[in-house]
Target: Glycosyl transferase family 1 domain-containing protein
Amino acid sequence: MNENIESKVERIKKLLNELVEKGELDYALEVIDKCENVIKNDIEIISMKGIIYYAKNEIEKAEEIFKKGLLVDFTYADFYYNLGCVYELKEEYEKAAKFFARALEFATGKETIDIGKKLNNILCKISTPLNDEIKIAFFVKPGLDSFLNDIILGLMDEYFVRKITVTDFKQIDEGMQWADICWFEWCDELVIYGSRHELAREKKIICRLHRYEAFTNYIFQVEWENVDKVIFVASHILNIVNSKLGGKIREKSIIIPNGINLQKYNFRDRKKGFNIAYVGYLNYRKSPNMLLQIIGKLTQIDKRYRLFIAGEFQDEENMTYFEYLIKEMGLNDYVIFEGWQKDINTWLEDKDYILSCSIFEGHPVGIMEGMAKGIKPVIHNFVGARDIYSKEWLWNSINEAVSMIIEEKYNSIEYRRFVENNYGYDKQLNEIIKVISEVNVVGVPSFIANKLQNSIKTTDEEIKKYYNNFSSYLKRDRERENPRHLYIKNRLKELIKPYYSVLDCGCGIGIISEYIKNMGVKEIIGIDISHENINYACETIKDVIFLEGDIVEINLNKKFDVILMIDVLEHIPLEKYPQLFCNLKRHLKESGYVYMSIPTFEYNEFIRTYRPELLQIIDNSISMEMMVELCKYAKLKILFYNTYGIDVPFQYNEYIIISEPQYEQLWSNLIPQF
Model:
């Protein structure tokens, strides 16, 4: 930035301060909007914009701006501090404390004292100390973060994240030193360097592999034994890379497609029209010549057809041919170049079709952006396309593409719903959080590794089918007073307060959930893997939220005072226990607890020997030692343990489980304060 520009920026900042002091907030925003296109990514102006929205009491907008500011500069303490103030105003004190603590890491001078005071005030409003946060560094080259920013924003509340735009390998040195988990957004020089780093074996490393990397030499240069998880955006890319590498990374590979944030794309129910959109670069892989063949045939049918292009050429040779062919085919009036679009949602608003002619893709976002708006996709049948899209949207020949455009069939709701059901942003984020949870823990507990060697794995579909059929048995408990339920209800009377929020995992047909609801709790949610159980619960019980889902994997994006698992743990596949306990911790408030009741190890083994017909599809025998190891794995602690009986004195174990920080706080209360 030269001296003239610097002085101009300073004058603008001075003007903005004066406008804010005078209370002319709307005029100040106008000034910012006008100068943002010229003065890009100035952190002080971004911060000021967020503060103005905060002053206008547009809190959600302020929060969005401060978070996006952290994508520009993760070391700017004001962004963290301002977000702490946002969450304090929203009375989300645990989040506020996190962001004030993060602000302290980057603050200097007197501001550290002010932030420290603010943090201490907030800590007085929460019942437990802050956990040590998981730190995640995202490494990416300049200009290659378009798939990454939404992921970072989605993880920002849960984890301490930093986006590091790498221009010098020293940034990787510093970032890996800071982070617990190192995320490399592409399989390129950055992950090659990171996987060979002296810290590589100490840190958890995730690499996301898109498309082009599969056809480079990069994949052979990575030290894959130091990479903990490889995320592929599509199955055909995974298969190509694993084939080239002899399958050596298949066990650590997972498919998580790109996610579309549907809130960014306005949907409307559309009809067939004449405006065709193409989004992206124009190069040989994108087959731009087919674009011209298609629009050429369409204009012969109806002169109202137009091809709009949002993108640019990547080589002069291709551009020269394309321009020549447009002139030769007489298409100058029918092909409109509009360049890269900052606001693709607005640009697509008057388009009727989203056209792709690519011969190869990973998991293309542009097509799904159009579908999210209700625009009909017309997609060349590239390698892997059948695994991503419905075959009715795929074409093999120019004539097929033209037929798809001129036909009457057009269903906007179907296109939007397809993206929502398969490639929604929330679904992508939940899968990523699961990966982070898996790589962040120290190895699988030994008792699981030992038992799995000789175990027979039961599929999720077999389990769901079993418990759908088991629903009729559970309904009998509505016709009789189950003595097990009587004991549990009496115990819950002691444990649950009216202002609690409760998550009932494996709720069955909702008998315990209904009892808790009648205790007057603030919120009760029941989750079960069986749709038969959930449907019955929804039909018979009011004012309780029942959700069908797997408690090992589900992410509700909220935390609870109490999580219940009553006669559930023993029926979950053994190999899922580590992930389950991590997921319980994720949903547990820092002051909350998990209540579990399970058969004793001895009682279950007795049934296995003498009454095997009473066993369910999965019925693990769980010892106290197992529970201790699982809690240690997920950074939980057993606060209370008891054995009780219904038919015999030693039939069931019950546990109250809390987080490690809460457990440590209980002990620290015994230490004399001087």
Q: What stands out?
A: The CA atoms of residues 129 and 664 lie 9 Å apart. The longest strand covers residues 588-599.
